[in-house]
Known about the structure:
Mean pLDDT is about 80; it is low at about 1-20, about 30-75, about 75-95 and about 105-160. The protein is built from 17 helices and 18 strands. The strands form five sheets. It has a seven-stranded mixed β-sheet, with helices on both faces. A five-stranded mixed β-sheet has the order 7-17-18-16-15. Strands 1-2 form a two-stranded antiparallel sheet. Among the domains are: about 1-165, no CATH class; about 270-515, Type I PLP-dependent aspartate aminotransferase-like (Major domain) (Aspartate Aminotransferase, domain 2), CATH 3.40.640. It is an alpha/beta fold. A hairpin with a 4-residue loop joins strand 5 and strand 6. The longest helix has about 35 residues, at about 520-555. The protein is globular and about 65 Å long.
Amino acid sequence: MRGLALRFPPSLPPAGEPGSLATGQRRRAARKVRARCVLAPAFPPSEPPFLGSVTRRAGAWAGGGARARPLPLPGEPPPFSTRPSSLPLPLPAQRPTACELLKRCRLLGRRCAPRGVLLPARRGLQRAHPLRDASSRPSTLCQPRGRRCPRRDRDFILMADSKPLPSLDWDPVAAEALLRDVFGVVVDEVIWKGTSASEKVCEWKEPEELKQLLDLELRSQGESKEQILERCQAVIRYSVKTCHPRFFNQLFSGLDPHALAGRIVTESLNTSQYTYEIAPVFVLMEEEVLRKLRALVGWRSGDGVFCPGGSISNMYAVNLARYQRFPDCKQKGLRALPPLALFTTKECHYSIKKGAAFLGLGTDSVRVVKADERGKMIPEDLERQISLAEAEGAVPFLVSATSGTTVLGAFDPLEAIADVCQRRGLWLHVDAAWGGSVLLSQTHRHLLDGIQRADSVAWNPHKLLTAGLQCSALLLRDTTNLLKRCHGSQASYLFQQDKFYDVALDTGDKAVQCGRRVDCLKLWLMWKAQGGQGLERRVNQAFALARYLAEEMKKREGFELVMEPEFVNVCFWFVPPSLRGKQESLDYSERLAKVAPVLKERMVKEGSMMIGYQPHGTRGNFFRLIVANPALTQADMDFLLNELERLGQDL
């Protein structure tokens, strides 16, 4: 670590040299100038000083000295690299003293101190960022001497013999080495092994054993790079590989490399999607991605925002519909509202009821509309439920239809539902979090006919399109800035109205949250790489494989479809040998319902595959297999049928 040297102005020569002052005079003079001096790094004679850029103002310096150059204008390349070993800029023949640097800073204002410089402050020390280069640790903080020292003597204290902090804050060489090693682990263990059919989907451990293997305790002392890499390997080893071709458990699976690249860039830049000034690229990108999604819905204009999941998108829709009907509720709250009623089916996502509870409407405000045997809303019963709610004194305000239900994969008849909403003056929300990506397919988009008549649509590209968690869009047909009017609070420290650019680009007030992660880049980058046609093929392939699987089940003994799949949800029972031909037994359904949990335990503990199961209405437990991974082939479908037969042959 380089030490710190206190540099005095030339008018105060060292003691013992011609013109030097007596000891007492020197001490008094030193006290007078000490508050004006700065602590500057003491470089070896052979190494030139490297000062970071000064905060930009008129005439700002880049570095220091007689040959210092002005900082570049926006769009121009920087005058030199951030590494001192690659400086093309001519250096001054003589290093400026600390006081000279201080004078330059004062010309620019006190807040324009060069990096690595301490400025005197009225109350304690005022420190700019420590001076760093690729081969040194950051300077440690200077501490005051103590109460017995005069105040002026406490302004600047030397700490040249302090030990460097055992941290990468900030050693670029060590940081780069760590990240390269971590990325290497990710490529080997996740991208290669995690997507290989010859590897396990998961390596199951019981909770107590897993705690011991991971060593989760957080301690006061840091760990070495080697230990950190071991931690990363352990986390990956014992995590479920959702990118694996035998992972059928959730509505998301697979791994798109372009989307992953977007996620890496997003996390590296670590910005928030609320103002144009800190996220200019992503504000414009989000606007374009949302415009494209709205066009697929069938709208030429509208609004939208990326939300942290489909549940929040649905909740936003309920809140927007309520605000549009009763705008006073934003200020006056629930006391400004009559009893409200919203309508959906039992097949809807559970976030509708959770959203009603969270927004203060209560779960009783959710009126359940009947669905047919395939899980589709019955429009005639919707009409009846609306009339019943009005008769009970409630005010209907929203209907939530579903395109792609969670279990059965059903699509509600949107045209007929839209007719009811239009007659009754109700907001129509379509939860297409799962099924929205079908709009990309010219072959299958008829399943969402009528969606263009909706007022709002929730769509999760992180599911069927494999954009990666999370990527959830709420789309609105509204063009009156309803999102900002409903959710905005106009925080003056973020959304100043006198900014130097169009403040309409500050989209933060569209969301309830303040900090908002960037979710558009992964979808945009994937779309750029695949194109709309590539994404359409991805959707069509999922439909084709689901149909192939269903037809293969019909050919094998022991597999029974719950219903013909309309989407990529394939729901079925595996009937073990002991129950075949015994459908007439009184306990058949009860015994059959116990099969799926046993098979699930076996497949997970072996790590061969993962398939979800659940009861549904009067039906006992059955498997719900999701065909969404774009890497799947017919061979994977054949494997899962063979594997279920192997795992259940003794049941």
